[in-house]
Automatic annotation (TrEMBL):
<dbReference type="InterPro" id="IPR017871">
    <property type="entry name" value="ABC_transporter-like_CS"/>
</dbReference>
<keyword id="KW-0472">Membrane</keyword>
<keyword id="KW-1003">Cell membrane</keyword>
<keyword id="KW-0813">Transport</keyword>
<dbReference type="InterPro" id="IPR003593">
    <property type="entry name" value="AAA+_ATPase"/>
</dbReference>
<dbReference type="InterPro" id="IPR027417">
    <property type="entry name" value="P-loop_NTPase"/>
</dbReference>
<dbReference type="GO" id="GO:0016887">
    <property type="term" value="F:ATP hydrolysis activity"/>
</dbReference>
<protein>
    <submittedName>
        <fullName>ABC transporter</fullName>
    </submittedName>
</protein>
<keyword id="KW-1278">Translocase</keyword>
<dbReference type="GO" id="GO:0005524">
    <property type="term" value="F:ATP binding"/>
</dbReference>
<feature type="domain" description="ABC transporter">
    <location>
        <begin position="2"/>
        <end position="232"/>
    </location>
</feature>
<keyword id="KW-0067">ATP-binding</keyword>
<keyword id="KW-0046">Antibiotic resistance</keyword>
<dbReference type="InterPro" id="IPR050763">
    <property type="entry name" value="ABC_transporter_ATP-binding"/>
</dbReference>
<dbReference type="Pfam" id="PF00005">
    <property type="entry name" value="ABC_tran"/>
</dbReference>
<dbReference type="GO" id="GO:0046677">
    <property type="term" value="P:response to antibiotic"/>
</dbReference>
<dbReference type="InterPro" id="IPR003439">
    <property type="entry name" value="ABC_transporter-like_ATP-bd"/>
</dbReference>
């Protein structure tokens, strides 16, 4: 569906994407993770055929975006990070008018609008203006609108940002259904649990390059341990506690409010810490997550 080789995007002297290789297979959900400024959005815009590449090779649906951009865009669905719905139109009108941009007949878009409103659970709001909808409803409508042309490839840029947990899970359910129906998904997200839930494979981008690639489970196995022990101490005691812990875990990370021990056997490591006289305010043994991988690869420093 997408194949990039040594893909580069420059803006003047700034190199946003620095020679990445990406392959997205039919029917999978593929994710781009990375901090702000990592190059995710620039890559997505090149795949969407709205921003020309600077160098390298890119094929989307087997075509060159620089040559066949309109043909590619006709077969894509795009969910932007910010909803750009026509706020003075109704839910139904947003779907029908957007469908007409693709040259679809009035009869077809009327039927398609009803189908998509049912898919997005918006049938009861069909005649409501967009301004009256909740944030979750607007997001579902944006996704529904992106499907009006039955796209083979759906690009979703931060699809659930700003939504409450119930709305996020409802959107996940809609995306699972699309994938089950054969639609290929490419997703950028800042939510690690979302990436673990939705993505078959993903890349972690940092500073315009790919730092790691694989399934969520593969990345956790490769870059973290099976479990993590979190120990919380009174302010100022983390450093001294970390010295007492030396040798107990494969990796120890000292944070302002806690100490993390990366280990294969969390309970046994916790018992050994107690045996050394450590008495944390609280302790927690948990499974390693994609967030542990993400922070190890990209760091904990805020990127503007």
């Amino acid at each position: 569906m997408v194949q990039a080789k040594a893909l580069v995007k420059r803006f003047g002297d700034f190199e946003a994407v620095r020679g990445i290789d990406v392959e997205v297979r039919p029917g999978e959900a593929f994710g781009f993770l990375g901090p702000n400024g990592a190059g995710k959005s620039s890559t997505m815009r090149m795949i969407a055929s709205v921003s020309p590449r600077t160098d390298g090779d890119l094929r989307v649906l087997g075509m060159d975006p620089d040559v066949e951009g309109p043909r590619i865009r006709a077969r894509l669905g795009v969910v932007p990070q910010q909803d750009n719905l026509d706020t003075e139109l109704t839910v139904r009108q947003n779907l029908q008018i957007y469908g007409r941009y693709f040259g679809l007949s009035r009869a077809h878009v009327r039927s398609k609008a009803e189908e998509l409103m049912e898919f997005a659970q918006l049938t009861d709001r069909a005649n409501a203006e967009v301004d009256s909808l909740s944030g979750g409803m607007k997001r579902r409508l944006t996704i529904a609108r992106s499907l009006v042309n039955d796209p083979e490839l759906l690009l979703l840029d931060e699809p659930t940002t700003g939504l409450d947990p119930q709305a996020r899970h409802l959107l996940w359910d809609r995306l699972f259904r699309l994938k089950a129906g054969g639609t290929t998904l490419i997703i950028t997200t800042h939510y690690m649990d979302e990436a673990e839930q939705l993505c078959d494979r993903l890349v972690v981008m940092d500073n315009g390059r790919i730092a790691a690639e694989g399934s969520p489970a593969d990345l956790i196995s490769r870059y973290s341990t099976r479990e993590v022990v979190e120990l919380r101490f009174p302010n100022g005691e983390q450093e001294s506690a970390a010295k007492q812990i030396e040798g107990l875990a494969e990796r120890v990370e000292v944070l302002p409010d806690r100490v993390l021990l990366y280990t294969m056997t969390g309970e046994a490591t916790l018992e050994q810490a107690h045996a050394r006289g450590l008495r944390p305010l609280s302790s927690l043994v948990r499974r390693s997550s994609l967030e542990d991988v993400f922070l190890r690869l990209t760091g904990r420093t805020l990127v503007d």
